[in-house]
Amino acid sequence: MCRVVCLLAFVSVLGLAAEALDNGLALKPTMGWLHWERFMCNTDCEGDPDNCISERLYMQMADMMVKEGWKEAGYEYVCIDDCWPSRQRDAQGRLQADPKRFPRGIKKLADYVHSKGLKLGIYADVGKNTCAGYPGSLGYYETDAQTFADWGVDLLKFDGCYMDWTLLGEGYINMSKALNKTGRSILYSCEWPLYEWPFRKPNYTAIRETCNHWRNFNDVYDSWSSVKSILEWTASHQDIIVPSAGPGGWNDPDMLVIGNFGLSHDQQESQMALWAIMAAPLLMSNDLRNICPRSKELLQNRHIIDISQDPVGKQGYRSAKVDSFEVWERPLSKNRLAIAVLNNQEIGGPRGFVIRAAPGWKICDPKCNVTQILPQYKEMGVQTQQSKMVISVNPSGTALLTVTPFSSDFTGLHKLHWENTSIRHKHGTIL
Ligand code: GLA
């Protein structure tokens, strides 16, 4: 553990190890909606017109985003995933949208989304084909980048199927250059490390210089086991991936599946809390036309979104595993700290978790203010180093707290704070 703590202290002193892709985008984790997990490759617009991949789907989502408070909450990008194009490029070698499902074309769709004050994302692939078998961009990077720019696209998700892995880096870098050359600001979402991990440890310095966010691990499914596997992968690779995140470039643990079928409400709270702790892009994949009010309230919870969008942009990490609880922490601006406590015991009822400020835990010396955000908002008031707080956490649920130092003397002491955090865990004073 000390390895990560020390690394973070190092990073906070020297600044980020690598420069981010310098396109001025994704200074905070991207927020929006992406079709894949919920709508997949449904192209059957005759049999299933409401759920097929068509211009109608994105127009309706854009409408909902404005009407139902999503835009106001910060969700901005409406993103197309795989299965949008024709099987053939046009006579000039350009990608074209499937004419039956997108009769007005992508440019008109972008105009519509922009007219709502939102942004449009599209999907392509660094290799010969997309994962679902549609035309890939290999050999067409400049053409495709220019086509997307001409259409007014604002984000490109660039997948990594059907590509020789030794050429992945070159391909992702060349597309980054091609996007840059268009002169349009296009947020660049990559899957480079996901496809490289099976062969070698990816070069996160190069990835951060190339992409605004990058997928590291498997696709999310609508299940708690899938969300758990993503959290476990992230925690077990945190010493490698956490330092690479910061304004302009983020680790992407994949979509939020909140509001669908597979997660209990407690599990939905866990996904939301931990995606905020991980400084992850918040790209929902759900049906905004039909979402239960509790899921909607959770996804629009401004306290959690504030943690996600914290301007310092440091990714949090797992700091302890104790008695089937996991503790995750994220350093926030103004020397605040977010703490998530996940109850991994999937049997029985709520269990109490004791938080005790250890002597030397500077954030509460002499006093701190603690606010509980999940499972319900509660001001826990002023705490001192002697305080003992017991929080109740449901099975597979998460309690989310913020800790704010009280003393105006407590400024710029991140380094001290982290050093003390490691001492705190070594002595096991967080129980
Ligand atoms: C890959 C990606 C997914 C999705 C599908 C589409 O599996 O990781 O996020 O884009 O391809 O085919």
Automatic annotation (TrEMBL):
This chain belongs to the protein called Alpha-galactosidase
Transport as a keyword?
no
Q: What is its EC number?
A: 3.2.1.-
- Every Alpha galactosidase A C-terminal domain range: 313-397
Q: Which organism is it from?
A: Stegastes partitus (bicolor damselfish)
Location in the cell reads: Lysosome
- Of which family is this protein a member? Belongs to the glycosyl hydrolase 27 family.
Q: Name one GO molecular function term.
A: alpha-galactosidase activity
- State how it assembles: Homodimer.
